[in-house]
Amino acid sequence: MTATAADIAKGAAAPPSNVRAKIWLYVPLILASIFYLIPMYVMLATGFKAFDEVSLRTMWNLPSGLSLDNFKAAWEALSPNVWNSFKFVVPASIISAMLGSLNGFVLAKWKFKGANVIFPLILFGMFIPYQAVLIPLVEFIRSINLFGGVWGLMLTHIVYGLPITTLTFRNYYAALPDDLVEASKIDGAGLLGTYRWVLLPLSIPSFVVVLIWQFTAAWNDFLFAVVLTSNEGWPVTVALNNLAGSQIIEWNVQMAASFLAAVPTLIIYIFLGRYFLRGMLAGALKG
Amino acid sequence: MALTEAGDRLTIAPKRRRRVQKDKVLAVALVSPSIIAILVFVYGFIAWSARVSLSTWKGLLPDYTWAGLENYRNLFADPRFHVDIRNTVIFTVVFVGGCLIIGLGLSLLLDQGLKGEAFFRGLFLFPMAISFIVTGVVWRWLMNPAAGDRISGLNLIFDSLGLDFLENSWHATPYWGMAFIAIPAIWQMSGYTMALYLAGLRSIPEEVREAARVDGAGEIQIYRRVILPQLRPVTLTALIILGHISLKVFDLIIAVAGKQYALDVPAIYMWQTTFDGYFFGRGGAIGILLLLSVGLLVIPYLVYTQRQERNS
């Protein structure tokens, strides 16, 4: 993939021609928009209905007012898990971004013997289906007494986040001219000085990309969470799934809860969407 | 003057050499925690999983009694694993096909220089930010198979629009249920596929189209003869990404339908047999088989792209 987010933002290559001839093109675009918006509509329309207004028969109707009944009930059920998610997602994203930046710096600009072998070895970690490491992972997390809570989950996300963060930073640093590092060396700066004063200040955009990517991946994760945590450590995805599977919680509360669980990543997407796209294309092979 | 300069050089040179030595050690020291972590968590754990898959381990306590390929042989004779493979194939075909068609179609539409392109792009892409669990829970209600008085979700819409022929039992459909699970997955990933294609379209230089136009090609011909062939590498990338997602599909099915035999896939079987049933040997074998199938898909692609990069 040589194309990047910058290419996408460049704008259409087709010649600007008769606007009227192109109006029919909006028909499929609007139909597609409806398809993408349906789940959001149902989540919000149901979420804002009052309890006595909710019925499966009228699930497509707009709410008559803006009641917060459903959201309150959903928040009551989900709030400890939302905090659990924040507790491990934030530090895991920051730590794996920091480590990835250091790795990327050393692998791109301070090559040591074997650096060319080590990079693909790290990358491979990005592609593995986690089912192939799940049993040892659970045994290991248990053996260091981190099973059940969020800290084992944090450690897991840091380690399995390393390949993608290292890749992103290495590619970014490799594109910077070597003269930057050479000049800094001549000025007498060592490895850490060069990193701290030359490369780190240039890395802010990459940090944003990587942090968004890691935050989204860890927040949305279900597989690691469901095998590594017990009740008190459940992050929001596991709690939401259990809530949806239970017979006690009404479907309208499930809808509101789904929306709550999606809010943090949606906010990030709305405000930092450009970076999100860039992170996605960098992480193209991470599923 | 000359003397002191020479003296300076004499004193600086060894210092710098020492610093370079020190920095080399420091460089290795900085990356080694990550490298060790990857060696343990990726390579060590895969080897450990492989060992578990060759053992008779059943029950809560680890048991590494050698079983040879017993677990693998049992899996290939296991009707549930046959269902898993069938479901994975159905899901992959519908999901990958749907994403490629919708993604390519939308990217071509958005490449026409329409007003509001950025808005549509953002709208098609936002499902990527949401977890499969959220998507699954909402689609569980949209694809509610209940009929008659309890009709709801999309069936209710079809009913009130007079589109009764579209009403169906979704993922509760016998044999083909898995095809419907692909709908929410397409909802989530087709915008991403669109972004990949759009990036590909935008990287085709305008001169290429101009040259074709000068040669007298019509717009449709330009797409067929010039643009689409140029997008082949993008299709390959998308195929690999989407294909390896479908091999690992797990949380979406759990959120839409729970654990159902009819909608079982290898990832769910692995989870259930290991952590609910304590058949660790079998769980390990499914994990290794998943790894091999993803490897078959990804490794040739990586070798191919590496070679491409070296050639360019």
Key words describing this protein structure:
heterodimer; A: 287 residues; mainly alpha; MetI-like fold; 2 domains; 12 helices; 68% helix; B: 312 residues; 13 helices; 75% helix
Overview of this protein structure:
Chain A is mostly helical. Chain A has two domains: 17-67, no CATH class; 71-282, MetI-like fold (Orthogonal Bundle). Chain A has twelve helices and no strands. Chain A has helices at 5-9, 26-47, 69-109, 115-123, 134-143, 150-175, 178-186, 191-199, 204-220, 223-228, 236-245, 251-282. In chain A, helix 3 packs parallel to helix 12 (251-282) and helix 7 (178-186) crosses helix 8 (191-199). Chain B is mainly alpha-helical and 312 residues long. Mean pLDDT of chain B is 90; it is low at 1-10. Chains A and B meet through helix 1, helix 2, helix 3, helix 4 and helix 5 of A and helix 1, helix 3, helix 4, helix 5 and helix 6 of B.
Average pLDDT number of chain B: 90
Rg value of chain A: 23 Å
Structural class of chain A: mainly alpha
**Which bin fits the share of residues in helices of chain B?**
over 70%
Sequence of secondary-structure elements of chain B: HHHHHHHHHHHHH
Morphology call of chain B: flat
Count of separate structural domains of chain B? 1
Uncertain segments of chain A: none
Supply the CATH superfamily name of the largest domain in chain A: MetI-like
Shape of chain A: globular
How big a fraction of the residues of chain A is strand? Answer: under 5%
Task: Work out the radius of gyration of chain B.
Answer: 27 Å
The helix tally of chain B amounts to 13
Category by helix and strand content of chain B: mainly alpha
Roughly how many Å apart are the termini of chain B?
A: 52 Å
CATH architect. name of the largest domain in chain A? Orthogonal Bundle
